[in-house]
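User: Sequence for PDR/VanB family oxidoreductase below. Tokens please.
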Amino acid sequence: MRRALTAPVAMPPDLYGRPRRDLFLGAISALMNGHMAAVRVLRRSTPTGQPVDRSLVVVVSGRSVEAHDDNVVALTLTRPSGGVLPPWRPGAHIDLTLPSGIRRQYSLCGDPAVTDRYRIAVRRIPDGGGGSIEVHDALPLGTELVVSEPRNAFAFAVPGYGSPARHLHFVAGGIGITPILPMLRLADSLGISWSMVYTGRSTDSLPFVPEVIAFGDKVTIRTDDVDGLPTSAELLTGIRPFAAIYACGPAPMINTLRTGADALADCEFHFERFSAPTIVDGRAFTVELARSGRVVDVPADVSALDAITSVLPNTTYSCKQGFCRTCIVGVLGGTPDHRDGTLTDVERADHMLICVSRAQGERLVLDL
Ligand code: FES
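Assistant: Structure tokens for PDR/VanB family oxidoreductase:
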């Protein structure tokens, strides 16, 4: 997100390393979250200072196939005995711990006003590390799972309620519809001016098409098999002046959209992408894995996580973008080049997130 409206701009807090944080939105958000924040402060640690585990046990109480090519399944998650779940706002996600121990993050794509269930949707990714395959093939109805409380790395500021934008423009690529769907519902229910472009490989690959087209002519659906790869102008179909853009999808779509947003005089650009960020100014280094004594070469264009998982396939990770903390590792030697926006200075003294951070020198020794 790089361009502000001419009025003071409300920028969501950013967990992707983009630096600006808007004070006004912060104040609004603080008010909206006041009760929960107070509760969380009280629950943040035990008397001994140990972190409190705020995970929840839920049960898979619903399953549905949501794309015609059968590659997207939606799960409904409820408490085993029913009851209210922690609240969330559009853009939020939960961490799901699968029975195999794999941990993955999924956006909540249901209705925040429905307080007794969460809905997530998962695209089958055959070469994605196994998490989506397990969700598709090994989570029948009744399966109990551990999930985190909802967290929000893609905060949504509503015009008139924390944002000076006059129009919202949404862009979703395929499964990127999941965080966008609750935003559409909220914008529509508040009578805010909005437009949307929904894109993907083919109509059969797009999940939740019936829910999306129910919004009528505010939505433009275009697919690569019919229309070719989208241009930035096509991704901005329907946008109006003083817009805030919210986009979720693959990196090429986000990059194309960013080019179009650059050419607009007054807009905000908020995005969430699927893939790890491109490595900028990467230098090769080596990692010594202290527990086994193995040494791993990390090429300049490869993350430490990817290099390490080639020899330690069970290394835990989730977002690959430096915000979920799943890949945190102790540093026993060398100086990390911290590239996350998540760890505190105290944590950075002897830990790093190996999905995005690298080495300042030629060698790191990690507690792996
Ligand atoms: S995998 Fe999420 S912070 Fe590294």
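The longest helix spans residues 177-189.
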